[in-house]
Task: inverse folding
């Protein structure tokens, strides 16, 4: 028999607040939901990194699916870039998730926090120096970048957008 656990609002409210703030930033920048959510879940709420990463990715599945449908409807998808990124990104993500699932939480926590801090600093730096009309960079490293981005996103619970 399925047993439903009742939660009180004071137990659920912090998670709602974290998701709300992270989605506000993600909606404005187009990225950083995973980075913000993972950082708060691991550092403030004390959640193990593997659980935080899986929680973030379950939520991101739905928000990203809605975004993907919208971009596809508005024909705002570079299918060639998608095809170049999808396989390396999946391999990196699977490898990162496997690694994180097989490392003790207390061993992974300092590395995950250091990674998330670096990504946070990078996002702030990038936001301050961003100018309009920047030229596109060479796409010769897109596949390996997808591999690294997928790996780091799975291990840290966020970072695909800033890395890739």
Result:
């Amino acid at each position: 028999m399925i047993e439903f656990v009742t939660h009180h609002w004071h137990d659920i409210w912090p998670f709602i607040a974290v998701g709300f703030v992270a989605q506000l930033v993600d909606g404005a920048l187009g990225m950083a939901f995973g980075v913000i959510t993972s950082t708060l879940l691991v550092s403030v709420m004390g959640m193990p990194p593997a659980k935080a990463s899986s929680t973030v990715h379950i939520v991101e599945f739905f928000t990203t699916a809605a975004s993907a449908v919208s971009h596809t409807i508005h024909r705002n998808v570079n299918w060639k870039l998608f095809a170049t990124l999808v396989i390396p990104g999946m391999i990196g993500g699977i490898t990162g998730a496997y690694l994180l699932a097989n490392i003790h939480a207390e061993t992974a926590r300092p590395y995950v926090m250091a990674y998330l801090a670096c990504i946070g600093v990078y996002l702030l730096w990038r936001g301050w120096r961003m100018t309009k009309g920047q030229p596109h960079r060479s796409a010769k490293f897109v596949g390996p970048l997808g591999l690294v981005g997928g790996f780091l996103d799975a291990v840290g619970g966020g970072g695909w957008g800033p890395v890739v």
